[in-house]
């Protein structure tokens, strides 16, 4: 019958019991990460019809309806060791991931094809990012990054910016330019030998050279000396390219474009921290970072136009409304943090108890108050009241505001809530007989002075001298000692 499906549909029917092949773990890891990237999850949420249950297993074109292209020239000896397993994986166990990859390919392949054509390279090279990164622009694997998994040295060689703030390997357009120039170099170096070109691109030139020497020494073909992992990568490319060519699905390109039209390119005029954007924007940090894999640091550089920052349109309105205050937020936050740290340090050095163990009380000094009576009222020490209020002595005045950190304990609460028994009136020392003249010293209060004369209170001294509690160093006071 002419209505026969391509070769890999037959494989699908016979490979369901294929065992896991460890050498393909690199492909499993990248596709696991790829299908959870922002672009995939956002697209699936917006257009769930592409990922409905009936899409798995996917449909394939008829063998005679597949467009023929020039032979890529990757001739792999049979039998193939990994193709059965990979076919089973894509069409059965991880079919949903394969459908995600196909939707992503609708977005990226037109870009790849245009650039491949301009350099005279074969169209099939567009399948390399599927195998290497799962079409995840932000995929990082060791020292490699981006759709094409470029090494740092390779990226810099072909003019990509890679530093602490920007990694242009994660930009689809710029990384594709670098990757295809590198492929052009490998095409010339290995004279179109696709096995060597692919192994060099997915591994390294040094790796290929070591295989060539070994094959020459042993008098065998290049393919025969490849390690299982290198063979697995070649077969992954071979099998994936044929599966993608035969898939029959709706093209998701225009829906991807509709999704991306909800976002806008933005160039900041000054450096701005990602923390500031997260603080003000409605988008989450994960979404902002997922949309902008090129920006790898904690700061988005201002006036960088290589790859514009992508942001939701409603967030653009917020940023524009903030104006210059957006850029000063980081400095203001730093100042606030420094002030809070200074306050915390000051509290620690002034003996303020840990938060949650006290009530912060604002107390206004009343007539007759002295530090001793105030401290006693709140169950604290006089030295603590001095430290909390930066007092050098015991002198206070009526109307002065003091901060008291009263301890939270039952005794103090009870003392506050239960009315105290009326005190017996104190017997004042009569203003008769001989008195002593006392000269006030620095830092003294009437309460401290009264304690030097048994039976004398601060109120007595105020009455005898017609003064209030405000006294000054050098002031002379009359004191009538008890019993005189």
What attributes characterize this protein structure?
21 helices; Membrane-bound Lytic Murein Transglycosylase D, Chain A; single chain; 47% helix; 3-stranded antiparallel sheet; 4 domains; 484 residues; mainly alpha; Lysozyme; rod-shaped; two-stranded antiparallel ribbon; disordered N terminus
Structural account:
The protein starts with 6 loop residues before the first helix and ends in a 5-residue tail after the last strand. Helix 4 packs across helix 5 and helix 5 (95-118) crosses helix 8. The longest helix has 25 residues, at 325-349. Strands 1-2-3 form a 3-stranded antiparallel β-sheet. Strands 4-7 form a two-stranded antiparallel ribbon. It has a two-stranded antiparallel sheet with strand order 5-6. It has helices spanning 7-14, 25-34, 38-46, 83-93, 95-118, 128-133, 152-157, 172-189, 194-202, 205-218, 228-246, 253-260, 274-280, 285-291, 313-322, 325-349, 371-378, 382-388, 410-417, 446-451, 458-465, and strands at 140-141, 144-145, 150-151, 263-266, 272-273, 299-300, 309-312, 358-364, 401-407, 436-439, 476-479. The radius of gyration is 40 Å and the shape is rod-shaped. It contains 21 helices and 11 strands. The protein has 4 domains: 7-256, Lysozyme (Orthogonal Bundle); 262-329, no CATH class; 350-417, Membrane-bound Lytic Murein Transglycosylase D, Chain A, CATH 3.10.350; 436-479, LysM domain (Membrane-bound Lytic Murein Transglycosylase D, Chain A), CATH 3.10.350.10. By secondary structure, the protein is mostly helical.
């Amino acid at each position: 019958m002419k209505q026969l499906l391509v070769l890999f549909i037959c494989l699908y029917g016979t490979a369901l019991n294929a065992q896991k092949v460890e050498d393909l773990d690199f492909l499993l890891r990248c596709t696991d990460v790829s299908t959870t990237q922002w672009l995939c999850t956002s697209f699936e949420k917006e257009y769930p019809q592409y990922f409905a249950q009936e899409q798995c297993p996917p449909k394939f074109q008829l063998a005679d309806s597949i467009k023929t292209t020039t032979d890529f020239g990757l001739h792999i000896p049979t039998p193939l060791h990994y193709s059965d397993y990979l076919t089973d994986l894509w069409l059965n166990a991880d079919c949903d991931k394969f459908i995600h990859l196909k939707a992503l390919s609708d977005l990226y392949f037109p870009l790849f094809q245009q650039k491949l054509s301009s350099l005279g390279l074969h169209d099939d090279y567009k399948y390399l990012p599927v195998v290497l990164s799962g079409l995840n622009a932000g995929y990082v694997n060791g020292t490699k990054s981006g759709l094409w998994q470029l090494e740092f040295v390779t990226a810099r060689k072909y003019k990509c910016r890679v530093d602490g703030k920007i990694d242009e390997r994660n930009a689809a357009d710029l990384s594709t330019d670098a990757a295809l120039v590198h492929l052009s170099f490998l095409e010339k170096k290995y004279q179109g030998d696709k096995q060597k070109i692919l192994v060099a691109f997915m591994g390294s030139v040094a790796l290929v050279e070591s295989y060539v020497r070994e094959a020459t020494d042993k008098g065998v073909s290049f393919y025969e000396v490849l390690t299982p992992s290198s063979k697995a990568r070649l077969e992954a490319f071979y099998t994936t390219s044929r599966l993608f060519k035969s898939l029959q699905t709706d093209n998701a390109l225009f829906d991807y474009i509709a999704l991306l039209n909800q976002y806008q390119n933005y160039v900041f005029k000054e450096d701005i921290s990602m923390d500031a954007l997260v603080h003000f924007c409605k988008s989450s940090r994960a979404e902002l970072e997922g949309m902008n894999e090129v920006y790898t640091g904690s700061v988005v550089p201002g006036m960088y136009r290589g790859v514009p920052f992508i942001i939701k349109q409603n967030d653009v309105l917020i940023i524009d409304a903030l104006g210059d205050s957006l850029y000063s937020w980081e400095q203001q936050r730093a100042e606030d943090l420094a002030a809070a740290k200074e306050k915390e340090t000051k509290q620690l050095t002034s003996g303020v108890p840990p938060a949650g163990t006290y009530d912060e009380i604002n107390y206004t000094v009343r007539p007759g108050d002295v530090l001793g009576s105030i401290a006693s009222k709140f169950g604290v020490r006089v030295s603590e009241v001095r430290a909390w209020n930066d007092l050098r002595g015991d002198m206070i005045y009526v109307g002065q505001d003091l901060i008291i950190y009263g301890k939270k304990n039952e005794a103090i609460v009870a003392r506050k809530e239960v009315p105290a028994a009326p005190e017996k009136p104190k017997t004042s020392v009569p203003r008769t007989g001989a008195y002593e003249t006392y000269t006030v010293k620095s830092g003294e209060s009437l309460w401290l002075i009264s304690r030097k004369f048994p039976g004398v209170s601060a109120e007595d001294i105020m009455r005898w001298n017609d003064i209030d509690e405000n006294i000054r160093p050098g002031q002379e006071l009359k004191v009538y000692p008890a019993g005189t």
